[in-house]
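REQUEST ID: PR-0412
SUBMITTED BY: lab tech R.K.
PRIORITY: routine
TASK: structure prediction, single protein chain
INPUT:
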Amino acid sequence: MIAPLTQRIEAWLRIDPDGPTSEVMRARAVYLIGGAFILTQVINMISMRYSYGGFTLDHLISATACVLVVATIYMLRVHKTFWIYALVFSTLIIAATFASALPERTGINSALLPFFVLGIIMNGFVSGLRSTLLFSIFALASVWFLFWVSSNYHHTPIFDVERFADRNFQRAMQCSLAIVMITLVAGVFSHHMHAAFAQLETDVELAEAADRDKTLFLTTMSHELTTPLNGIISLSDVLAEERLTPDQREMVALIGRSGADLQAIIRNVLTYSQIEQNRIAIDAAPFNPTALIARTIRPHERQAHAKGLTFDTQLSRSVPPALLGDAARLSQIVDALLSNAVKFTDRGGVQISVMCRTLETPDTPDAPRRVSLVIAVRDTGAGIPDDQLSAIYDRFRQGDGSITRKHGGTGLGLTVAQGLSQAMGATLGAQSRVPSGASDTSAGSLFTLALTLPVAREAAEAKPLPSLQAA
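STATUS: complete
OUTPUT:
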């Protein structure tokens, strides 16, 4: 309840939660201290109404102070010059102190100490060490000024000044010592707090710069590796057409598979770097979803059969022959999901299903019809524990994070799939169940990609390929 309220307040005050930490904390100190001041004044006005039996000048003073504080908090929407807020609050605190001491000629009294304590702490949080020291000096001067005032009255409506002269002096001394002690504590705390914030911001900037350099390096190196890798794959394809011995053909095939795997890794690194830099471009061109799925599943179907797994494909008859979207990015997402499913499944099988549902009919005849395309990839693998399910989209992260993990890979596949899904306006969900025993066949993971695409007016590719089963 408190967090959403704080978020709404800070959104209204234009406080950027991702901005510099010191600025966010100072701004929070301004509106929290201001809110506390208003609350105490409201309680004070209710108390005065009960004590005085009606509206008095003190009510007007408190109400005016509340209006000034509200205006001060509102100023956060305009600019973040925090020494101004510290000055305004300090002025109100000193004015409130004098207003409580001078009219009744009470001079120095113990009730003034909380005002000065509040002022010292407020300056420490909002502005810093220098403002804290300046306010403390002014507070000490105010204490001894009020002591001088009370010492020069022969009689006040509340107490006999001459009779309590020694006590007044002792009150002034105690108040002064308390101010000095609180200033030392608050000053040291304020100095270290703001220094820590400044160091934190510097470290964040250095980390972000290092992250940008790393991403740029990955992008550059990926581009540089692509050219020689394409040459290796092309030469392996040429060699595969020559007359080779069985051993030679197996080695050439291994070169081709290794090159394809490395090519997929480089593609993920390139895509990840584009996601990091917010440079993902989503195209919109007609494509045949059935043909796209057929092309994407072929290498994974072969890998599944090589591991002794079943591989099933279910295609709904309602899938249109042509949709408008980014076929390359969609294929990359499906490829990552299938690669992940085959890699982490040692028995059972993998299933991919494609379903489609027509959305509401467009209001205008020229508007394209839109469909909800849902692609689900299910496997009977080891599953993902509940405490790790939320972290599977983290970069360089796998369910088994140990150095000696059984399965290899960069851990970027699902990260890239999630980033591309968000760029396309799609949602990628995951469900998983860890097997309860060796005979448990209901375990595994289910990844579901849901996206909305318009139906293309012209055919995109040839008719659906026969390798898919109609569901």
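NOTES: The chain has three domains: 2-207, 210-276, 285-470.
REVIEWED BY: pending
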